[in-house]
Amino acid sequence: MDVTQALPLLGGISPQLFMKRYWQKKPLLVRQAIPGFKPLLDRAQLFELAANEDAQTRMVIQEPGSKPGWRFKHGPFQRRALPPLKQAGWTILVQGVDLHHDRVHDLMNQFRFVPDARLDDLMISFATDGGGVGPHYDSYDVFLLQAQGQRRWRIGRQKDLSLQPDVPLKILANFEPEVEYLLEPGDLLYLPPRYAHDGIAVGECMTYSIGFRIPNRGELARELLQRLAEDAEEVVGVGLYRDPNQPAVNQPAEIPATMMEFAQNALQDALQDSLALARGLGEYMTEPKPNVWFEARVGSADDTQAMKARGVRLDRRTKMMFDPHHIFINGESFSASGRDATLMRALANSRYLTGRDVAKLSVQALVLLAAWCAAGWLDAQN
Ligand code: SIN
Ligand code: CO
Predict the structure, then answer these.
(1) Ligand 1 closest atom vs CA 138
(2) What CA dihedral angle connects 60, 65, 67 and 69, to 10 degrees?
(3) How far apart are CA 16 and CA 178, in angstroms?
(4) Which residue(s) pair with 119 in the sheet?
(5) CATH number, residue 359
(6) Which residues line ligand 1 (CB under 6 A)?
(7) Residue 293 belongs to a domain
(8) Mind listing the pLDDT tens digit for each residue in 310-352?
(9) Residue 346 maps to a domain
(10) Is residue 2 part of a domain?
């Protein structure tokens, strides 16, 4: 993608300018970001997915009254478990639809001017008239694409982030909207993290949310430390603690300060291995989601021939990234350099390689590609 080229998707500005001016800073409304946009799944297909165990689905039902109440349920939901379409004020939200439908995955890929390590998933919500999840804020960035019908969005910078007590959802107690927009199919609204918003369906409506992943320091530290721990003994070595200068003690229960220093040094050495840290980060970022299963199949020598003839395409569920020293795919890391690294990076970026490019790979890289093909991570493309 040429990130300097103006995109209709971003209202005629380039991804470069969007990232500079709006990303994580302020909202952007784009009328007709995708002109003539038609939903990629109809209502029946979305309901079918909502019944699927592997899809993460939630339902929010608004109970009318002077002070509206909220009911919240986790799916999966069989069709008969959904309220009638004539009933106003309910919504279902199906997370990760990009993992199930190629065209939805392709739509999400239009947002790959943001690194894959930040892109999370595409959620589809369906609501009957008046439906929504209430005024709230999210901790991540989101692009809200109106797919069908209309939705009225009220948004605001909101200083007071206190939440309503005793409700099963995170709903702002004192929402103070500043602007209001009525979105039509094909319109897009970008919101930075923590920007308050409330979207209410005007008639039956479907909204697509392209959501982002925001690593959190504590979680990242725990994940990386766990991964580093696996190789720690090898990296740090088995040097033994020595204390020739230990004086005699009259408080024997006290841990010696020199032992604390010894422990700190050992930890520092373990953290010093920047390649191990990079491996841990890449493996973690490409770890498939817990609800993702690949269908392994018996590989054969023909696979390599087919890949050379037709090229390869990553499965839509495959996560593939790289750093200057490694290639990462679905939670595994490989050292790569030279032409193999260039081609593998191209595969990660474009999500396909032509047969001519596959034929340029070394024997070792071809063996890897065949193993990934057998694991169901990629396929010889047609
Ligand atoms: C929705 O689609 O109903 C909710 C999306 C959001 O507010 O993040
Ligand atoms: Co939201």
Answers:
(1) 8
(2) -20
(3) 27
(4) 212
(5) 3.40.366.30
(6) 91, 125, 132-133, 138, 142, 197, 199, 207, 209
(7) no
(8) 999 999 999 999 999 999 999 999 999 999 999 999 999 999 9
(9) yes
(10) no
